[in-house]
Amino acid sequence: MIRSTVEDEVARILDGLPPGAGARQAFAALGEARLFAPHYPEEYGGRGGTLADYAAVADALGDRGFADEVHLVTVQGVGCAVLYFGTEQQRRRWLPGIASGRTLASLLLSEVDAGSDAAAITTSAREGAAGWILNGRKCWSLHADWSSIGLCSARTSKGPNRYSGITLFVVDLTSPGITVAERPRLLGEPYFTVSFDEVAVPDDAMVGPLGGGFRVLTSAAGYERAGLDYLSRGRVWLRAAEETLVAFPQLCDERRRAGLVRLEYGLQAAHELADATIAGADDFEFDYVSSAYSKYTCGEAAQAVARWVAEELLPEPVVQTRGDLVRRLRAAVAEGPELSISGNAVDLLLDTISLDPSLGEV
Amino acid sequence: MSSLIVAPPVAVSFTDWAEALSSRAAAGEPVKCLLSARRLLDIFGPDALPALPVGKPGQWSDARWLLHASAEESEGSDGTSTWFLSLGPGREFEGSVTLTSKQAESIADRELLALASVAVGTAQRAMVLARRRAGKRMISGRPLIELQAAGHRLARVAALITQARAYLRALCRDEDAGIGAGYRAAAGAAAAAEAAFACAQALVQIYGAAGTSDAEPAAAFAACQAAASAAGAPARLWLHAGSRRPLRPTTNARSQAVAT
């Protein structure tokens, strides 16, 4: 499969959607053409393509303002965990729905006191009469209200170290005892808190080995670390910024034009690194140093766009006369700061880069 | 006549030329000859080949001949440029070529890409030195690199270098594919220069007083400064890139879609 073929096909489908179509319609349309998860094997609803095909779909969704983070978490985070670590029965049960673009999924990992420290969770699972009983609370999920399933981490035992004893479960979010509550934000789209109160899940909900979920979890979050979803946000924001300069030529001085090209450089350079990371990935495994460079630069580049918008465009009174542009520019300013904390904190990425072996011996 | 090796061979891609420039700079080897050769080939095309004698490896010290080969530009009133090939002091002009403004601009862009590749390689060399020093220099009983402020400073600079390198590679591939880098060449040169300046600063900071007194870091610092300045001030390059980049009205109405 050639990436450009996928790109063209995806563009045709997305551009052919009726006006006002939302992300879920887009997902379903892609699923219809086996393009929501093109890198899944054909028997699970994909086309047997490559990660680059997947990246082309993610790019196209993000560029059009659709919720590519939902696509990312559903297909790569949850779906690939099932694909690579699940049983054949689990694959046949969950993957066709995911590949169809109609079964959306959430990663339920973060907790109030265990944000970037995925081993510090307190959500627990104990053996029940016919499976496992889950208790706990997962936080900061985006679009969990769209999801019908979630991949939830829970502590099933106290292992010899803090990374062992964690197990992953695919959970039907309509199960009794689960509540999905919106947590409004002052900035950006709402988060959701998913609470588990004596939730019974069957034995076959377990993905990967009992007590060995941390290893699966780091892979499940691996793709997120390439940062492609950050880039698509940055590109959408940059487009809004450029449209603002086109709409108000009096703002378009040489300094701002230079600023625009600098931001474009940042996004394109980061895209090159993300592409290299994806090209170098082995199925579900991403080189952690390459991923760190990619995610760090993608986040920085997109955040730079948001900061520039806040400093150079929004303070200009004339911009306030165009409500449509202001809305889009404010969205950039609202979402920008989050890009340094979600997925993987910048400090951890810099730690990894500082030990990059390709920079010579320390 | 002295001779020199033109490496890589003149027939290889622009990407390989840029890579050779970068890796020579990263190894601390001189790059002037390679830059001159590249420039002559860009201006005169295959006609310049006879002017580029090929010798054996290790003969770079005999390369003064090509160092004096240079191109001189004469602007015509019709917007064209005529370039004269000089083979050295006291030698007759042996060739000339008249270029349109567009051709001249394209050559200037490739020159920027070449200089930027050198800047990235030079910065890379300084980064390796800085990291090695940060691993050995002890501060309050701990290697400096274990202090987050130092480690993260180096990481940020490493990211600047890596970004610039990735971007330049993409532009060079475009050049080889017949897609001119255009305004992006100036952007790449500006970014590479900023990365080299940042690396020079970080190098001295990590070395401390030895950064300006020991021969190796001082030479790397000077090389970074020189390579970063070779294409002009980065601020001017950004302005230049911005002035050439056309403003684009939105190409995709769906970019305004709200994800619901």
Describe it.
The complex is a heterodimer of chains A (362) and B (260). Chain A has 362 residues and is an alpha+beta fold. In chain A, 46% of the residues lie in helices and 15% in strands. Chain A folds into 3 domains: 98 residues, Acyl-CoA dehydrogenase/oxidase, N-terminal domain (Butyryl-Coa Dehydrogenase, subunit A, domain 1); 104 residues, Butyryl-CoA Dehydrogenase, subunit A, domain 2; 137 residues, Butyryl-CoA Dehydrogenase, subunit A, domain 3 (Up-down Bundle), CATH 1.20.140. In chain A, β2 and β3 form a beta hairpin. Chain B has 260 residues and is mainly α. In chain B, 58% of the residues lie in helices and 9% in strands. Chain B has 9 helices and 5 strands. In chain B, strands 1-2-3 form a 3-stranded antiparallel β-sheet. In chain B, strands 4-5 form a two-stranded antiparallel ribbon. In chain B, β1 and β2 form a beta hairpin. In chain B, α2 packs antiparallel against α4, α4 runs parallel beside α6 and α6 runs antiparallel to α9. Chain B is elongated, with a radius of gyration of 21 Å. Chains A and B meet through α7, α8, α9 and α11 of A and α4, α5, α6 and α9 of B.
CATH architecture of the largest domain in chain A: Up-down Bundle
Biggest sheet: strand arrangement of chain B: 1-2-3
CATH class of the largest domain in chain A: Mainly Alpha
- The share of residues in extended strands of chain B comes to 5-15%
Low-confidence stretches of chain B: 1-10, 53-69, 251-260
Rg on CA atoms of chain A, Å: 21 Å
> What does the average pLDDT of chain A come to?
89
| Strands of chain B, count | 5
Q: Give the count of helical stretches of chain A.
A: 11
